[in-house]
Write a structure and sequence with these properties.
The protein has helices at residues 21-28, 44-63, 77-83, 85-88, 110-120, 166-186, 262-267, 291-301, 329-344, 359-369, 400-408; strands spanning 32-36, 39-42, 67-68, 74-76, 93-96, 102-105, 129-138, 153-163, 191-195, 206-211, 217-222, 228-230, 246-259, 271-273, 279-281, 283-290, 303-304, 307-308, 319-323, 349-352, 373-377, 385-389, 396-398. The chain is of the alpha+beta class and 411 residues long. It folds into two domains: 11-216 and 247-304, 2-Layer Sandwich (BirA Bifunctional Protein, domain 2), CATH 3.30.930.10; 319-408, 3-Layer(aba) Sandwich (Rossmann fold). Strands 3, 7, 8, 9, 10, 11, 12, 13 and 16 form a nine-stranded mixed sheet that branches. The longest helix is centred in the middle third of the chain and has 21 residues, at 166-186. The protein binds one RNA strand of 75 nucleotides through residues 9, 11-19, 34, 36-37, 85, 88-91, 107-108, 110, 139, 141-143, 145, 150, 197-198, 200-201, 216, 253, 256, 258, 261, 286, 324-325, 327, 356-365, 367, 376, 378, 380.
RNA sequence: CGGGGUGUAGGUCAUCGGUAGACCGCUGCGUUUGGGACGCAGAUGUAGAGAGUUCAAUUCUCUCCACCCCGACCA
């Protein structure tokens, strides 16, 4: 991609109202655009990052047997009346269709997936079954805030797992838990697994929290062992496991996993026939992961005063190629040549090909956008590449081949 | 939903009863080019919306709307 064609341009100042770091940086760097409170457009750079996060999640979901589907955003209100959530789900968006039909914009998909399963699951041979989707969810939050951290329309991965028994469900819960830890590790985020707030669910209900001062959750972390608890459910200031002192930390909840209540299966008649010919109720678990919120969390955690510092796994491009002195034909030719060579090697490269823009402005944009590797071609670089990692201060000069090695084997 | 704040050019902000200006960005020309260069010349506005007060309202008053922050809320 040539920078001169990239939509839109970066902004020198954050728009008024953008207070949180992720909001400011993502808007300035041209990743997102706010349309109204809690609703954003994902611009080319932002959409790339979102897809990279999605793909990492997808890969791990597939590894643990997940089958990807896409359920509708628009739900029949009737299903929500059956579970009682048409009136009890506070942040539900409701609308009317033709003939005054009640409709719902999906904030979660139990009301869709249970009827779907009930129609297709009959035997123990059909179980277990793991279905997931990555989709836009809607929740009419009383107060949207903090950029991508709390929005009314957001991208989420939700996995629904269906089992013959609670025991089997609990075993799979551990498997998904591990998959989540792998995902966040790949995303470069260190997460704490905390006992969830809410209390509606069993002990297995847990949240994945990213510790950062700008977080809106508060968790209590033990200074001696690994225990972490959401503050909303903590009774005292001592660790329940080792009696160590608990320290308060602010955090962002990026994932939440829990067993689903039996009542959904009862309402939608989700039963199966077991080996002995007996009719039994299906046991299920739900596993959520906020894709767009995770993007915001990454910007909150990984940035400096100049801009975002994307982990290599989710950066919109692998390489930011900066051409200087491009009014000199030989330099321009060399920059173009490197650009094409990188593309031929399937390296994702953003090429700043602007001729009339000063070096300082190009560097400032590169820092703001936050792509992991910056490669400069100028009249000074000769037949080598000047490489700088976004996280490091010093630059080094390497051959094209050496650079390929570095980029293709990220650590 | 309670409390507070802000709405003026595409973006950030000045102006404050007498009909609007700077910087960034944009267009053109010229000079520049290793950390957000400079000169000259241009284009761009229903001052959030409505009502009121006034000879006169962007400016004062009221209502509404939008956005942000704190809180409440967050299957």
């Amino acid at each position: 991609m040539k920078y001169s064609k990239l939509f839109p341009k970066t902004l020198r100042q954050a728009p008024v109202g953008a207070e949180s770091i992720n909001h400011q940086l993502l808007v300035r760097a041209g990743f997102i655009h706010q349309e109204m409170a809690g609703v954003y457009t994902y611009l080319p750079l932002g959409w790339k990052v979102l897809n990279k996060i999605s793909n990492i999640v997808r890969e791990e979901m597939d590894k643990i047997g997940g089958q990807e589907i896409l359920m509708p955003v628009l739900h029949p209100g009737e299903n929500w009346k059956k579970t009682g959530r048409f009136s009890s789900f506070d942040t539900l968006y409701k609308l009317k269709g033709a003939k005054d039909k009640d409709l719902v914009l999906g904030p979660t998909h139990e009301e869709i997936i249970y009827p779907l399963l009930a129609e297709n699951i009959n035997s123990y041979k059909d179980l277990p079954l793991y279905l997931y989707q990555i989709q836009t969810k809607f929740r009419d939050e009383p107060r949207a805030k903090a950029g991508l951290l709390r929005t009314r329309e957001f991208m989420m991965k939700d996995l629904y797992a269906f089992h013959e028994s609670d025991e089997e469900r609990n075993e799979y819960y551990k498997i998904v838990r591990e998959a989540y830890l792998k995902i966040f590790k790949k995303l470069g985020l260190s997460v704490l697994v905390t006992k969830a707030s809410g209390g509606t669910f069993s002990d297995l209900s847990e949240e994945f929290q990213v510790i950062t001062p700008s977080g809106e959750d508060t968790v209590l972390v033990c200074n001696r062992c690994s225990v972490a608890i959401n503050k909303e459910i903590a009774e005292d200031k001592k660790c329940p496991q080792c009696n160590g002192n608990l320290k308060e930390e602010r955090s962002i909840e990026v994932g939440n996993i829990f067993p689903l209540k039996r009542s959904y299966a009862e309402v939608f008649n989700l039963y199966f026939t077991d080996k002995g010919g007996e009719k039994k109720i299906v046991s299920a678990g739900c596993f959520g992961l906020g894709i767009s919120r995770t993007m915001g969390a990454i910007a909150e955690v990984f940035h400096d005063d100049k801009g975002i510092i994307w982990p290599e796994t989710v950066a919109p491009f692998q390489v930011h190629l900066v051409g200087l002195d491009l009014e000199e034909e030989s330099v321009k030719g060399e920059a173009e040549r490197i650009y094409k060579l990188l593309q031929a090697e399937r390296v994702e490269v953003l090429f700043d090909d602007r001729v009339e823009v000063s070096a300082g402005a190009k560097f400032a944009d590169a820092d703001l956008i936050g792509i992991s590797y910056r490669v400069v071609i100028s009249k000074k670089t000769g037949d080598q590449l000047e490489v700088k990692k976004r996280v490091e201060k010093e630059t080094k000069f390497v051959t094209f081949e050496q650079f390929l090695e570095i980029v293709k084997n990220p650590r």
